[in-house]
Amino acid sequence: MGGWKGRDVKGGRGFAIYKLPKHKVHQSIGMGLKYFYLDPSTATWQRSKHLVNMTESALGRTLQQLYSTYQLKVSDRAYFIYNDGAPSMPYDMKHGHTKGVLLFDKAQGFWLSHSVPNFPPFPNKDYSWPSSGKKYGQTLFCFTYQYSQLAEIGRQFLYYNPHVYNWTLPDTFLPDLSNLQFVAKGGRVSNSPWIRHTELTSSGGVRFQSFAKYKDFEDDIYAGWVAQTLKTDLLVETWNGSKHELPSNCSLPKHVYNVVRVQLPGPALFYSYNDHSKWCVSLRYRDQWICIGDLNRTFGQMWRSGGLLCTQHPNIYKAFRRSVSWYKNCSDAQSCNRGNIDLEV
């Protein structure tokens, strides 16, 4: 993208960040600001020398492009910032349980998908990390795409139904990206099918399968759709701090198992109830699927919109797969009560 200053979306490769929770096994309570970094060129997680709230961090340098676009009144860029838990706003249950940023010009741009409520700050602010984002583990996934991919991302957003809390789209991007404008104004898919699956390719050549579901699909995205479509058993790491967690599922041809504990280098060991991340990996190493997205495996989130971005990139897969320390088989999964759905962020 012409003029991009974000050094961390290197050559279009993109990156993943795993922000550590405050509470880790056999360790004193931490700051909740340390993170590990991963991109397609690295063979494993790399501990950052910066904290996630620093402008020098991978995330800070990338999002500085958003704030400079606003501050310098750059007229040839567009952006969309969405979060069902937007900063300084009431929690939004009507839109999708999805969080992220799109920023682009007519050449290319990035799509950041993340799991952090109250983030990022509005463009008229400076980069910062919310105090509410320190307690739990969080994942952030960012890749650069050519402009030609933005229309396809816009079609997926019709199903994501995100709460767009700040956006700008100059007329020069219309009618190419009319779907994004429609979504930003509150539009969404209005008839079945309530799911959409498509392919995306990053500027650096990483190929993705994008899964987007509208709330009327009324099923668990992992067991009911993604595992069966990718034809692979999945290990799913999502926040299980709710008593309404869906149990591991072996009733369909491809099974889904809930991750209980995560281990990153260090060792940084923590349980899923301290982790707000949403990701899954193939159980078998030969399948090599890694997906990062928006939704928890709970009863309530069967009725929320959101999606997953999946790739078979071997380095990204291996780093996440090796992070699974313990998961539940179907035989030891506990049953869940469907009533009294918790408010989940």
UniProtKB/TrEMBL annotation:
Coiled-coil regions listed: none
EC number per UniProt: 3.1.22.1
One Pfam family matching this protein: DNase_II
Presence of the UniProt keyword Hydrolase in the record: yes
Source species, domain of life: Eukaryota
One GO-annotated biological process of the protein: apoptotic DNA fragmentation
Record keywords: Hydrolase
GO function term, MF aspect, one: deoxyribonuclease II activity
Reaction it catalyzes: Endonucleolytic cleavage to nucleoside 3'-phosphates and 3'-phosphooligonucleotide end-products
Protein family membership: Belongs to the DNase II family.
Protein known as: deoxyribonuclease II
Gene source species: Scyliorhinus torazame (Cloudy catshark)
